[in-house]
Automatic annotation (TrEMBL):
Its cofactor is [2Fe-2S] cluster. Residues 1-105 form the 2Fe-2S ferredoxin-type domain. CDD domains: fer2. Gene3D superfamilies: 3.10.20.30. This is (2Fe-2S)-binding protein. Keywords: 2Fe-2S, Iron, Iron-sulfur, Metal-binding. The lineage of its organism: Bacteria, Pseudomonadati, Bacteroidota, Sphingobacteriia, Sphingobacteriales.
Amino acid sequence: MITFIVEDRDGTQVPIEIPEGINLNLMEVLKGSDYPILATCGGMALCATCRVQVINGAEQLPPPGDAELDILDTLPFVDESSRLSCQLRVNESLEGCLFRIPQED
Ligand code: FES
């Protein structure tokens, strides 16, 4: 099992357990768990509505790719803790991470 923690907008933290080897990205897991993630572009790294803040574990995640960096660069309200959840594969790199759902823009 891969276990990470998600903090909702009201500060509630819930551990999420995902079986290893599953072919999902974090956006799909968050949507499937009914978090308020719009993901209007469907995971194409175009809309940034799947944005999360990485509170713990950022250093263990794969670095953002060019498409992700390009869109994060265009957003004035984003800081260096922000990642696009659609670009994060659910694998052991997420183990123990804490992701916060950002407040609405
Ligand atoms: S779903 Fe649109 S950028 Fe991630």
